[in-house]
Amino acid sequence: MPQSVVGPEIERLIQLLSRLPGLGPRSARRAALHLMKKKDLLLEPLARAAAEAAASVSVCSVCGNLDTRDPCSVCSDPLRDASVLVVVEDVGDLWALERAMATRGRYHVLGGTLSPLDGIGPDQLNLSSLMHRAQDGEIKEIILAVNATVEGQTTAHYVTDMLAGTDVRITRLAHGVPVGGELDYLDDGTLAAAMKSRTPF
Amino acid sequence: MPQSVVGPEIERLIQLLSRLPGLGPRSARRAALHLMKKKDLLLEPLARAAAEAAASVSVCSVCGNLDTRDPCSVCSDPLRDASVLVVVEDVGDLWALERAMATRGRYHVLGGTLSPLDGIGPDQLNLSSLMHRAQDGEIKEIILAVNATVEGQTTAHYVTDMLAGTDVRITRLAHGVPVGGELDYLDDGTLAAAMKSRTPF
Fold first, then answer.
1. Matching Pfam families, A to Z (chains A, B) (predicted)?
2. Strands A169-172, A141-144: pairing kind
3. pLDDT tens digits for B82-117?
């Protein structure tokens, strides 16, 4: 957009919004316009909320989750099962598992997957802290809840090797047909895995 | 998401982001996570930009545009052709025409279209100020650049009737095949209009 049409403050807002996942340049303009039209209801509250989140959010020193307190709400929840540790790649995966209420265990956020081509080796992930947690005796089971991608599975194998000396039970999420999924649309790998892990009906 | 997983500041940020056009609850969570991961690069600048925009943006008292000054940059640009006035429904349409560099005239933002069922009558739109501008003698042509929807065309007819007594020339945008468009995918109305308004090649 030519510089003359909107002031630099608006231009800056559009530019920052366009860097959000899911918003391109066009939808960022639309979002900025929507915000400015609802200045009192949306733009000012968003400015405050963003400032408050920026001031209060930190990385949990125990598990790597993002929260407004440290240790995070999950780590400091006394009702959680301290014997189960769910290893995830990313905070978004932790949120997804929490939404699904899939576990009452605690989490460990790796912060990514092993990806040598991108320069991400074991030292770039939260692996040493995982090793420390696995060795403190409280944890009985580590569930590898990583993505079913090549990188995720590589990372899962690395973690399994790393934890080989400990007496922690290591499990991974089941592969199979997604609930609501249609067989015709599933890939061969998923179908083969679902067939192999079939269960009594 | 259960209240326990993320703090209220994060919850509030997600909730506000989910009200942006183009972002649903899921993508709002993803956007919030992305912002928090890049706190220094994205979340804090966004908080500042939103606060600055909220503090500086106002509606132009002349044309209804949103800008950081009043009159807006378009209205106060001396190089603009003061004899041409482009009537648009919304600020987004003004921006679109400016991006396309479609005109060197000035604008008048109606702020919507006539829609009796939604309670939007002539008094809810910036029509009286349009009448005043049309009568001040400087404007020779008013271009109705409203959407080619039923509401847009109804509004265009209303504006034409309203301006009938003035000696301003009233025009509207051409209907036709969009540049890059394929005939097979166009609706009948567009094809008929394009045929009717065919031009020498």
1. RecR_C, RecR_HhH, RecR_ZnF, Toprim_4
2. parallel
3. 999 999 999 999 999 998 889 999 999 999 999 988
Q: Name residue, tokens 């807002």.
A: A13
Are B67 and A10 in contact, with CB atoms under 8 Å apart? yes
Same domain, A52 and A105: no
% residues pLDDT > 90 (chain B): 69
| Cβ pair B65, B72 in contact under 8 A | yes
Both B151 and B93 in one domain: the answer is yes
Dihedral (CA of A98, A94, B24, B68) sign:
positive
pLDDT of residue A4: 54
Summary mean pLDDT of chain A: 91
CATH of residue A103: 3.40.1360.10
B119 phi and psi, to 5 degrees?
75, 20
Residues of B in contact with A71 (CB under 8 A): none
Q: Are residues B145 and B116 in the same domain?
A: yes
- Best mutation target among A15, A27, A48 (most B Cβ atoms within 10 Å) is A48
pLDDT > 80? residue B123: yes
Q: Are B69 and B62 in contact (CB under 8 A)?
A: no
- pLDDT reported for residue A189: 87
Q: For B140-195, where are the E strands, in sequence order? A: 141-144, 169-172
CB B107 within 8 A of CB B65: yes
Contacts of A32 in chain B (CB under 8 A): 53
Per-residue pLDDT, B4:
54
ipTM score over 0.85, yes or no: no
